[in-house]
Each structure stands twice: as C-alpha cells, then as structure tokens.
Amino acid sequence: MKKAEELRVLGEEIVACRKCARLVAYREKVAREKRRAYREWEYWGKPVPGFGDAKAELLILGLAPGAHGANRTGRMFTGDRSGDFLYRALHKAGFANQPTSLHRDDGLRLQNAYITATIRCAPPGNKPLPGEIAQCRGYLERELELLRPRAVLALGGIAWNGYLEILKQLGKIASRAAFPFAHGSEAELPGDLPRLFGAYHPSQQNTQTGRLTPAMYAQVLRHIQRYLRAR
Ligand code: SF4
Question: pTM (2 decimals)?
C-alpha cells in the first residue's frame, strides 16, 4: 500500500475513535451547542486526522483541535485564529500553497509538511489529561513510522514533551530532561532521529499578547528550511 493510502486508512481509524469518554462527550457537546457565529455550520465533532503532504520531510505537531476550529471544520488548525497565524507563516516559508485555511475544501495544500497533533479530540479548556495524551499516543507513533520525517516542529511544550515521551517509551532516548523546551530551541537527537525544533504554540494567548510574533515564526521556519536543504 502506498504511504498516502496508509495515512488515509489511519485517518479513518482515528476519526472513528471513541477511547476517551471525557473527550468524546466534550467534542460532541460543542458540536451540538455550537458558537453563535457558527450556528449555520454542521460541526465535525469527531477526532481530527493528520493533514498534509504524504512525502513530507517536516512533521508539525500541535496540541489538540480547537473546540470551534478543527472540531468544527475537521481539519487541523482550520477555522480559528491559531490556524490563521500558522498557515500565514507556513505559506510565507513555502510550506503551504495559500495563506488561509477556512474549511476542508478551500484548496489548501501543504508542500513538504504534514500537520498533526498530540491528541485528536478537542479537550475542555485546551487542557488534555495525561491519561488522554497517553491513550492517543499510538496514532502519532504510527504517523511518525509512516512519514519518517527529517524534522519535527513541536508547537508548545506539551507537544514537545509528548514527542520526546514517545522516543523515551521506544527506548530511543533515556530521558526528556536533557531536552528542555523553549521557543527557537533545536535538539539534535541520537541516531537517525529527526531534528526537533520548538516554537511557542500559535494560540491567541501568545499571538495577541506579543509573546509570539510573525517574525519569530518566520525565523524558526527559516532554520528548518535551511536544515532540510542542507543534505
Ligand atoms: S483523544 Fe485520541 S484516543 Fe482519545 S478519543 Fe480522541 S482520538 Fe481517541
């Protein structure tokens, strides 16, 4: 089976998942009740599969679908302010064919990048429980196995630690402590593991307070492009 097909099959499995009772109840409640501005929408209300180029060298790892963003539209980082910020930056850096991400049929394509998340269901308050992250980890492991990226960009500390935890569980690193998260951090991991890059999560809390600016994202993405082109 071709990689794109395997990712599609995995995506179908993810979309059907109901393993975390708390998250299933929340994502469906949000989809039923809706936000006033989106009352005409039929919310997705299910787990959100990964999205992007099946041949990607860069895997971008977010935290979780936004309750009224990806949980509404069914595509990662689509339909909310975090996505507006992220896709504008990806477009500028050459990883996306357009700067906007509004709905699943808007023509957006990623180039050499694939976007996924630590957990696939929107959590209350954007805060997944450790047990829920552990429950969902297998899907990310399988995506990593299929894609075999050369670089991973973790958006925020939870994604960064979630990724390192996978490596620890697989016995590829001894501990996460040697690799602390910071915006702009870069970790050279042992063996042939992908290079790990860190950036603050593009949440409104970060982008509207000036903690995170477009220039800061452009710099991280430039580093990644340089790294990918170097070999
Ligand atoms: S968070 Fe992951 S494991 Fe839990 S229900 Fe959603 S898709 Fe399934």
Answer: 0.97
